[in-house]
Amino acid sequence: MFMKPRAIKSLATVKSFSLNQWNKVLSLSPPRTNFGWVYILIVALALLTRLWDLDARSLHYDEILHAWYSWVYSQGSGYFHTPLTHGPFLFHAGSLSFLLLGASDFTARLIPALFGVFLVGMPYFLRNEIGKTGSAFVSIYLLISPSIVYFSRFMRNDVYMAVWALALITIMIKYQQTPKFRLLLAWAIVWALAFSTKESTFLLAGTIGLILIFQTSTHLWQWLKGNRFLSEIGPAGDLLVVLGTCSLPLWAPLVGIIQGIFGIVLVNPDPNDPRVIAGELIRSNAETGAPVGGSLYIAAFIVVVCIAFSIFIGLLWNKRLWPILAAAFSIIWLLLFTSFFTNWEGLFTGLWGSLGYWIAQQPVERASQPWYYYLLGLMVYESLALILALVGSAYLLIKHRTTFNITVIAWGILTLVLFTIAGEKMPWLLTGITLPLAIISGIVVDKILASTTPMKMRFQIYSAGLISFISIPPIFFYLILTPSPYSKWVLFLSLSFCLIGFLSLMFFVYQLKFTDKYSINSRSIFLMLTFSLICIWVLGIGINAARASFSYQSMENPKEILVYSQTGQETSYASRCINQINKERNQAIRILVDESDNFSWQWRWYLRDFDSVHYKPLNQEPQKINSYDVILMSKASEGAQRDHLSSYQIAGDLNHLWWFPNYAYGDISFAKLLKDFASSQGWQTLYNYQILRKIETPMQRSRGTVYFSEKFHDYIETCMER
After folding, report:
1. In whole numbers, what is the pLDDT of the chain averaged over residues?
2. 116, 229, 332, 411: most buried, per Cβ within 10 A?
3. Residues 6 or more apart from 428 whose CB is under 8 A from it?
4. Same domain for 194 and 140
């Protein structure tokens, strides 16, 4: 048979494919098609980094709080919202995971991890605003960001909040471009989910609300003057009205800030409030953040007034659409806070308790972190995004003042300022600060690359490969030879970058040989060094992410600022050992857990499947403990029970709980920084921590011991092994 003419033509085309055409195929210039395949690869890597070995690290102290109540909920005992543990969304999600897949450390972290994967892919929906190259850069940065990676593998609310925040920014931008009802509906739904997740939503709502007020200020003024209907205030005004009217009742406790003027208590102060301790404020026995006595009726009246005003403004804006949007917001919020109408007290704790408790907590300043805490965390983990955002914001405001760019910059600045002002500062809040910084960085990168011709871009990238190939190995192979639990990660990432550098070098040589368009000069050397520095910087970020999120295999103490307070690895090892004994012996094991020294909390989660577990304070008078098979005891209690432990053998010691030594950075001042930068000792200290994670300040920890009765002596040697 003869070949079809089309096939013959196609074959001829392949044979005549020129060198120039191959040069175009092999070039690294920005593709004209979308970046769909890039995002598929990035999301696949996100799945790997978020799910791999997800249950290997013991649950963090805060994680256990959330996992325990989620598990209790999944067992049919119900869920009752309390402001202490933030919003109910996490507990509904955790309970669902346990119901479908069973309770374990892995399933406790599974849904946050999946949200973390989704977060990495979300910049795709802003590729037209950020730029195709810039949005890919944002996704890559979120993929390797130490704070994003760590708290994506963590059962807390913050990765949820990051997804809600980026979703709201996306909806806000898209609606202003093309006003559609479905976007308004999504706007109301996401806000309901955010307010049901964490109280930091109030800071987010305040930030976005200020941006919308600024964007629609002219229209609002014309409406206030009577020259325009409320329905004609523009897309930004629509978003503002929906946000304001749906959430206004939740803001009612804000009047508690000025309660002293009227001599009433609408927000009961925290018992640890310095003013209460000093006798300047009187605290009632009521719940923290709740109204006291007759103030309950005043609080109810304020809430009713807020609801009535919201209805009035909403119907004035749009009688047809607003009831639908308000119903969507209210139903979702009500279902979550009342645990699907099984806990009507959640209506009160959600309406008043959430913000009221948060207001009462601010003077306490839990964790006692310095004002520069977030700047310190950003410099340690997110320095690339921080510096690019700081320098890039000025560049964007001068050269590219678009609505989107101004919105993201304002979002980043206000988030950092408001979180810094807030009394309580915790490492997990870095996720909310890092997110806008990463987006600003992506916009800057896109604008810079867009101003560069494809040929120059290729030359710069190939040049970067040359320098990277030369400079990276000596630097990081030195670290490989240094004893460290992170050596394998340094080795893996170094070799990866060496491979990339080698391939780039080959392309670089190819370009010089076949194009003959560029030569080595001072400008090219500068570009080579700049791109190489960024390559090494990215490598450092990746190493930081790896060692913060995955360096738990040995029983190393947590030297990461992100950790805050971590359950020792030995806790999960001991629980696995006890479970193994229980299965092999096929008989119920009697377990005694020490309640003193805050020792028992983790064990309530890890021993949840045991029926015969007893909790007693053992730091006081001697107890009758000889009838128990396993005793888990704080070191502080051993002296009181010494005479009763003679019939037991030590299976292993526990690093029950680790704390990062916050006082190691608590006295930083401008004068001290200048002194440190002027001395070799200061640079050595910086190098020791930033590169090697060596700190002179001793770690804070509480310790315990695992005791086995004599009949379990066969398990002593292997019990605490991983």
Report:
1. 82
2. 116
3. 151, 154, 156, 158, 564
4. no
Distance between CA atoms of residues 373 and 665, nearest Å: 9
Question: For 592-635, what is each residue's pLDDT tens digit?
Answer: 999 887 888 889 999 998 888 999 888 877 667 778 888 999 98
Domains: count for the chain: 4
pLDDT of amino acid 499:
58
Q: Which helix (H) or strand (E) holds 649?
A: strand 648-659
Instruction: Kindly state whether residues 218 and 255 are assigned to the same domain.
Output: yes
Please list, in sequence order, all residues whose beta carbon lies within 8 angstroms of the beta carbon of residue 691, skipping any fewer than 6 positions away.
Answer: 479
- Cα–Cα dist 22/575, whole Å: 60
Tokens of 420: 């810094």
User: Which has more pLDDT, 187 or 578?
Assistant: 187
Please say if the pLDDT value at position 285 is more than 90.
no
* pLDDT attached to residue 522: 55
Q: What angle, rounded to 10 degrees, do the helices at 201-215 and 234-247 form?
A: 150
Q: Which of 473, 474, 449, 527 is nearest to 137 (CA)?
A: 449
Q: Which residue has the higher pLDDT, 427 or 583?
A: 427
DSSP code at position 203: H
Q: Is residue 1 part of a domain?
A: no
pLDDT above 90 as % of the chain: 42
Q: Same structural domain for residues 527 and 593?
A: no
Rounded CA Rg of the chain: 29
Q: Do 238 and 351 have their domain in common?
A: yes
Is residue 545 in some structural domain?
yes
> Are residue 216 and residue 354 in the same domain, yes or no?
yes
Alpha helices in 482-521 (DSSP H): 487-514
* CB-CB contact of 196 with 332 (8 Å): yes
3-class DSSP state for residue 239? Answer: helix
Single out the residue in 363, 387, 403 at which a domain terminates.
363
Q: How big is the CA angle at 647 (ends 642 and 652), to the nearest 5 degrees?
A: 75
Q: Are residues 200 and 342 in the same domain?
A: yes
Instruction: Using DSSP, state whether 579 is helix, strand or coil.
Output: helix
Q: Are 625 and 641 in contact (CB under 8 A)?
A: yes
Q: Is there a domain that residue 431 lies in?
A: no
How far is the C-alpha of 313 from the C-alpha of 703, rounded, in Å?
Answer: 58
Cβ-count burial of 222 within 10 angstroms (0-12 exposed, 13-18 middle, 19+ buried)?
A: middle
Rounded CA gap, 31 and 635, in Å? 62
The last residue of one of the domains, among 326, 341, 363, is 363
Dihedrals φ, ψ of 315, to 5°? -70, -35
545 plus 572 within the same structural domain = no
Q: Could you list the residue range(s) of the whole structural domain that residue 114 is in?
A: 34-155
Instruction: Tell whether 317 and 213 lie within a shared domain.
Output: yes
Q: What is the mean pLDDT of residues 188-206?
A: 96
How far apart are the two ends of the chain, measured CA to CA in Å? 67
**Which are the contacts of 233, defined by CB distance < 8 A and separation ≥ 6?**
216, 219, 220, 222, 223, 240, 241
Helices (H) and strands (E) in the chain, counts: 31, 6
Taking the CA atoms of 344, 350, 351 and 352 in sequence, report the sign of the dihedral they define.
positive
User: Could you give the CA distance from residue 607 to residue 629 in angstroms, rounded to a whole number?
Assistant: 14
User: What is the phi/psi pair of residue 429, to 5°?
Assistant: -75, -10
Answer whether 576's CB lies under 8 Å from 720's CB: no
Q: Other C-beta atoms within 10 Å of 542: how many? A: 22
pTM for the full predicted model? 0.86
| CA triple 359-364-370, angle to 5 deg | 110
Measuring CA to CA, how many Å separate 20 from each of 23, 24, 406? 5, 6, 42
481: CB partners within 8 A, 6+ apart: none
If one counts every other C-beta atom within 10 angstroms of the C-beta of residue 180, the result is: 12
